[in-house]
Amino acid sequence: MADFDVIVIGSGPGGYVTAIRAAQLGLKTAIVERTELGGICLNWGCIPTKALLKSGEIYETLDHLKDYGLSVEKRGFDFTAVIQRSRKVAAQLNAGVAFLMKKHKVEVIEGFARLEKGAESPKVIVALAAGGSRTVTAKSVILATGARARIVPALGMEPDGERIWTYREALVPKSAPKTMVVIGSGAIGMEFASFYRALGSEVTVVEMLPRILAVEDEEVSKAAHKAFEKRGIKFRVPASVKKVAKTAKGVSVEIEAGGKAEALEADVCIVAIGIVGNVEDMGLEALGVKIDRTHIVTDDHGGTGVPGLYAIGDVAGPPWLAHKASHEGVHCVEHIAGLKPTNIHSPIPGCTYTNPQVASVGLTEAQAKEQGREPKVGRFPFRVNGKAIAASDTEGFIKVVFDGKTGALIGAHLIGHEVTEMVQGFTLAMTLEATEAELQGTVFPHPTMSEAMHEASLDAYGLVLHI
Predict the structure, then answer these.
(1) Which of 11, 98, 192, 419 is the most buried (most CB within 10 A)?
(2) Mean per-residue pLDDT over the chain, rounded
(3) What is the chain's alpha carbon radius of gyration, rounded to the nearest angstrom?
């Protein structure tokens, strides 16, 4: 007889949410975690970075107090206090996850898990953090082991904790660097570039692709590039990194752009070139688990093809987002329980918490055309939105993409102040398979920046009111 109904390996937003839902369904559940409850997201990713970005946003706002008729006598910051606040926020949420595990009677096993062939599902052998080992069995095992920063030691892109950083080192430095090179212009790279620039660091971002935030709609990407340059961030795009080397004073990043070689000198370098799944040393290959470029291949319910073994979240592939992991975990365990869960492929919004923020869901205009659709596109700028003008937050716009034949909303792309709080409206609309008629017929409160969502939907069909 199995020790548990479900064992979840990994306690990030995918793992711990999965464990909670399993317990709610009456399944005897255990969760295995090798380091900290909450995983990378709560401890070293999503949450602490947002705490830092908030500090940076407020500090940057002090430059514009006169726009609001306000003034301060002295402007400054305590970098150690900024970092400590970020760590305190992470610690609070870590404790919150521990409370939730206790509340739902989920047994927490601290240690590193390996899998071996078992009866109903693979056996889980845990090298306990306290010493020794423990073998546990379950009817179903769910892998939620997440991912880590991709590094390239051959090019010198390996963190040393002092001059060459990944996101982890960038969260807890002893002091704010005066100069910085960020390799990679995805969400992680641009968020750290935004934070450190807000506190006065000279930041240069190197990106090998033709544009920054390459997963975003091209119009949003170009607008973001201009906005970041306006704030003093420098770019080398496209450019390839040839070598990263430590120097007597900091670090040298050798790049090639436009056929010309250049060496960028800085105090530190942040490597943000993607992530790789945590699939090593768990016995997956011996079990016959299929792995594609460090990510576990799964079916529409998270199944790996190995009886009783599932995988969710970052380790199961892109998009590498906490909310995607949670959604997959709930779907997976509800499927295990015999329910009929919501579509595992529901629309997944993406958010970048820079200044300005970027958010999107669904297809870009280019992707819609590539699929042979006839997109109808609408746009609305915040510069003519009443709430945005009143708040002096007029930067950016909203762009929507409808299917020209059916009227279905198939994509939304936003850049501007707090747009990460607006994109969920479009995500809900897409989940409900809304068309332009529903969005155009929805009453948006006035004055709000969300009115731009309505106006953009109207604009796609030539009905915009305020331009």
Answers:
(1) 11
(2) 97
(3) 24
pLDDT in tens, 404-448: 999 999 999 999 999 999 999 999 999 999 999 999 999 999 999
Q: Domains, the chain, ranges and CATH? A: 4-149+276-336 (3.50.50.60), 153-273 (3.50.50.60), 356-459 (3.30.390.30)
pLDDT, tens only, 341-362? 999 999 999 999 999 999 999 9
Confidence band of 161 (pLDDT split at 50, 70, 90): confident
What burial class does residue 298 get, using C-beta atoms within 10 Å of its C-beta: 0-12 exposed, 13-18 middle, 19+ buried? buried
Does the pLDDT at position 135 exceed 90? Answer: yes
Model pLDDT, residue 178: 98
Quote the tokens at residue 164. Answer: 């060459």
pLDDT in tens, 228-237: 999 999 999 9
Per-residue pLDDT reduced to its tens digit, 324-341:
999 999 999 999 999 999
Angle made by CA atoms 323, 324, 325, in degrees to the nearest 5: 90
Closest CA to 16 of 122, 77, 99: 99
Contacts (Cβ under 8 Å, ≥6 apart) of 257: 236, 237, 238, 239, 240
Task: Report the C-alpha gap between 182 and 47 in whole angstroms.
Answer: 20
CA dist list (Å): 242 to 128, 159, 182, 255: 41, 16, 14, 5
Strand duo 357-362 + 350-352: pairing? antiparallel
- Single out the residue of 260, 253, 243 nearest to residue 205, CA to CA: 253
pLDDT at site 1: 82
Q: How many residues does the chain have?
A: 467
Give the β-pairing of 275-277 and 147-149.
antiparallel
Would residue 446 show up in a list of annotated catalytic residues for this protein?
A: yes
* Residue 364 in this model has a pLDDT that exceeds 90: yes
| 50-76 burial: b if 16+ Cβ within 10 Å, else e | bbbbbbbbebbeeeeeeeeeeeeeeee
- pLDDT tens figures, 389-405: 999 999 999 999 999 99
Gap between the Cα atoms of 347 and 58, Å rounded = 32
Contacts for 143 with CB less than 8 Å, ≥ 6 apart: 9, 10, 282, 296, 304, 309, 310, 311, 312, 315, 316
| Pick from 98, 122, 275, 256: nearest CA to 186 | 275
Q: DSSP code of 452? A: H
Question: Is-contact 254 245, C-beta < 8 A?
Answer: yes
Catalytic residue among 225, 327, 417, 446: 446
